[in-house]
Write a structure and sequence with these properties.
This protein is α+β, with helices and mostly antiparallel strands. About 55% of the residues lie in helices and about 20% in strands. A five-stranded mixed β-sheet has the order 6-5-4-3-7. It starts with a strand and ends in an 8-residue tail after the last helix.
């Protein structure tokens, strides 16, 4: 709710502010959604005109990528814009809701601006370290999986090569044995023929 002076009477009047909502606007392809984080009139249709684009949200990667106009988001929530449940989780993850909470405390005099900034800085440092740890963990897991897959592929190739070599050796052995058998058979036949030729013919006396 805002207040202004009436242009003719000079009296102070209340001006009803537009109810705004911060929500996701879907883009991208089927099964590959990509979202814009937008501020829109709460009464506007889902795909209606937006008031301001605050950033993007890509859930198709691990971890999901959030690109957000932080100061713009803080300004809108301080001015009463209501985030949807999903957007609230995104804003909380990025520290927007914490920043709003601290700034409200500063505005009420419950905490100094310096103390609020210090608290937020400490939270951000912890959050950034945790995010980097997650990214490093995912990268390590991927590298380990790639190495394991590569080792498995090498093992399969080596097993196939070994099986092929064994088949070739078995075929060669069988061919050698078959040739040897034929050679032995031929030699035996030749020997028998030679013996028959060497045997003298029997003669009979009249």
């Amino acid at each position: 709710m805002r207040f202004a002076k009436h242009r003719w009477t000079g009296s102070i009047i209340k001006i009803k502010s537009m109810a705004t909502k911060i929500r996701l606007q879907r883009h991208g392809r089927k099964r590959k959604p990509f979202y814009h984080v937008v501020v829109a009139d709460a009464r506007a249709p889902r795909d209606g005109r937006i008031v301001e684009k605050l950033g993007t949200f890509n859930p198709n990667v691990e971890p999901p990528i959030i690109d957000l106009n932080f100061d713009g988001a803080v300004k809108w929530v301080l001015n009463g814009a209501t985030p949807t449940e999903t957007v609230r989780m995104i804003l909380s993850k990025e520290g927007v809701m914490l920043k709003k909470h601290l700034q409200v405390g500063v505005n009420k005099g419950a905490i100094t601006q310096e103390a609020a900034d210090e608290k937020f800085g400490a939270w951000k440092s912890t959050k950034d370290a945790a995010t980097q740890s997650t990214v490093d963990g995912i990268a390590k897991a991927k590298a380990d999986k790639d190495a394991k897959d590569a080792a498995a592929r090498i093992e399969v190739r080596e097993a196939a090569a070994k099986a092929l070599k064994e088949q070739e050796e078995a075929a060669l052995k069988a061919a050698v044995e078959e040739a040897a058998a034929k050679e032995a058979e031929t030699a035996e036949s030749t020997e028998e023929a030679t013996e028959e030729e060497a045997t003298p013919e029997e003669t009979t006396e009249g």
